[in-house]
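Running low. Got one?
___
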Amino acid sequence: MTVLASAPRATGSGITAAAGRSGDDALRAADTTRDGLSAREAAERLRTWGPNAVTSHRARLPAVLWRQLRSPLLGLLLAAATASYFVGQRGDAVIIGAIVALSVGLGFVNEYRAEKAAEALHGQIHHQAVALRDGNPCKVDVTELVPGDVVELRLGEIVPADIRLLDVVSLECDESVLTGESLPLPKGTSAVPSGTPLAELSGCALMGTVVHAGSGRGVVVTTGAATEFGKIAAGLGTHQLETEFQVGLRRFSMLLVYVAGALTTSIFAVNVLLHKPLLEALLFSLAIAVGITPQLLPAVVSTSLAAGSRRMSRRKVLVKRLVCIEDLGDVDVLFTDKTGTLTEGRIDFMRALPADGSTADELLRWGLLCTESGGAGGPAVGGNPLDAALWESAASQSLRGTLAGSTRLGLLPFDHDRRMVSAVVRDSAGVTTLVTKGAPESVLERCVDVPDAAREALAAEFAAGNRVVAVATRTPVGEERPTAVDERGLRLAGLLVFLDPPKPDAAAALLRLAGLGITVKVVTGDNPAVAVKVCDDLGLPAGRGLTGVDLDALDDAELAAAIVRTTVFARVSPEHKARIVRIQRTTGGDVAFLGDGVNDALALHAADVGISVES
């Protein structure tokens, strides 16, 4: 989310009021229809309500300057300069003042320049949602959503505003960020009684929560600071925690303050007892305090950190706070995501491997019909990257014409528990078929008479580091809207193989980290065999990996021991990643996490150093 919200942005009395209305009443209150707003009306409302955002990143000169001045060591130096001036050592006072100005100036110039660069980058990062404009679905920047927009929600997406739901298909939302509830909340379209708690607004989807399962469509009720998420964010301070380097420097500075104070006081007291003149005793004491003050230390620290910042900038790394460089240099263990971090994050369709009794064209046809991002009519706006890669592949071009005679009657969307999507399809002859597509482990469990050759082919593709989707069918089908119970007695149609290639420079980066004594461990939601193969290809010995199921069976002490001897953690959830990072931090050493800014937010927050590949 971006841009600082100012005025409230809501229709009616907010999401709690909309939750008590029916869907049609919510549309009337928002002065819109199920076809959404026109582009002209959306633009007018955007001018009225302002951007749909909570916070902004702006380079603020006073804030950057204050971060440079709040060091206890600088305070000690300024006191020493003042004392030098009054004891007649004005040359020393000028020198100390110049050193302080140099130290503050170096830090200020580097950090303010980084803040301006971050501000420019922040303006280039965009998150999009699918909204209906002029009756047609289109991708809209999240900040341009307005009350009255009708938006679509799909699996894995972050809800972009407070939304009153109009239609849902097995929709569940993870609302732990707002309510602390660990289990996803099933969603519907029914109104709830007045006064219903936030955690029980089943007819609404709230900004910042995550679509855990299913899909839905709803009308935007509130945006920006008027959302429940925005209200919480607006009440939070933006105070940045001290790094270990700052803590150590502050303690050292305070030690010098105590020593200088004690010496000055004791020397002055001794001189008074020896009947020295008071003014002479005071001047002598202040001279001692000035003498023990390390005048060059701030300049040395700022110069060293600034040099590190310049070296990082030449490698296209933006350092927003100089003091963070020291923590980055202290990293002992680096946890990294795989997809999009070690690999390109770009999915390409490679080939179709039909099972006995099927052909490659038949397998591709079933795969194209059983997609959440389209169907017989073609791909829709947004959707699953694997589905998009399948539709865009050269192999599917010649088959698109054969899909026109087929009609999709019902769809059971993908969710993280089943890890499959199913569709009921009727062909031109009137025959209905249940088509199921998803993770091979899950699909094959529901198939009968799986050929040994298919299992061997699956193992070979996993060993090669490829992504594989299994497709299975069953006929006849009695129900038009499939349920999880229907996903049984299937016959395997074959395997669809996709590739997410490693980044060209990933192997060299891992080798460099090993040379620096940094232990690298991979945490991913992907298949264990694929993750191990990618690691082996990149020169990172993986051995046997642990899965999310394995982690659930371990207590914290057992997991701490397992982390030491394990390189790959696969099929893990965001919560698993954060738990691994937190436990590693308790065992000592600085921990860094490298991953996606959205999907890995929990782990990024839990680490000593969080590095987002999106920011």
Notes: Residues 61-122+241-314 form one domain. DSSP finds 23 helices and 19 strands in the chain.
